[in-house]
């Protein structure tokens, strides 16, 4: 893991060779209500995919069980959500175009609810300031929404379009706190990497183990002064 280990420094001297990775949910985006439970998810599958409730329930149970098992095993790769839904439907003799599956996930995961998700203003401002100062800014999220829908959600919330790259685990692959997820989002000729997130276990500890600087954010009182200090801003 060359380039990932280095002594933390108190002020930014690397300029463009510095990478700042923001966590999404709990940092950039606030979830004002918890993710929908399986019954609500099932209802949207019935409505959007025009399948009977029994089949929809089986599909939802299959998808949730597989994802839950992956979440419990911190080192397991997260299966792609879209692929899981498509496979569960096809195993039951049902095929739907990708745009219909996207629509089902959009509604089932509450993205159409106007009050479920909210952009964190201070986090958005921090990402904009850091990018404007010439640092590379990226976004990393453990999520169930495919990347296409995550980008749509972020645009709708008014998130700044400053991210050089995003890692959305719903597209399949390693997830936080797996070091491989950090290696993917942190790839590049950077002299310094900083992780900004709210979770001690998923964001802060794994980044520190790789030699990254870290800034832990309290979602109730988001304050990015520590990040600005690290960057000498």
UniProtKB/TrEMBL annotation:
Pfam families: Hydrolase
Protein name: FMN phosphatase YigB, HAD superfamily
SUPFAM superfamilies: HAD-like
């Amino acid at each position: 893991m060359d380039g990932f280990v280095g002594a933390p420094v108190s002020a930014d001297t690397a300029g463009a060779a510095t990478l700042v990775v923001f966590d999404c949910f709990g940092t950039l985006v606030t979830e004002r209500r918890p993710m929908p439970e399986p019954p609500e998810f099932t209802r949207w599958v019935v409505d959007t995919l025009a399948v009977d409730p029994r089949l929809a329930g089986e599909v939802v149970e299959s998808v949730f069980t597989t994802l839950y098992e992956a979440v419990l095993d911190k080192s397991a790769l997260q299966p792609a959500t879209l692929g899981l839904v498509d496979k569960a439907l096809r195993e039951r003799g049902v095929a739907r175009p990708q745009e219909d599956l996207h629509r089902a996930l959009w509604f089932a995961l509450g993205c159409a609810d106007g009050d479920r998700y909210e952009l964190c203003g201070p986090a958005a401002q921090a990402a904009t300031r850091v990018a404007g100062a010439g640092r590379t800014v990226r976004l990393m999220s453990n999520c169930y929404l495919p990347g296409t829908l995550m980008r749509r959600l972020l645009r709708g919330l008014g998130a700044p379009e400053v991210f050089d790259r995003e890692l959305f685990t719903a597209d399949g692959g390693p997830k936080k706190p797996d070091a491989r997820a950090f290696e993917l989002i942190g790839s590049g000729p950077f002299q310094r990497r900083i992780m900004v997130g709210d979770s001690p276990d998923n964001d802060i500890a794994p980044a520190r183990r790789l030699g990254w600087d870290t800034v832990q954010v309290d979602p109730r009182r988001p304050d990015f002064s520590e990040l600005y200090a690290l960057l000498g801003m």
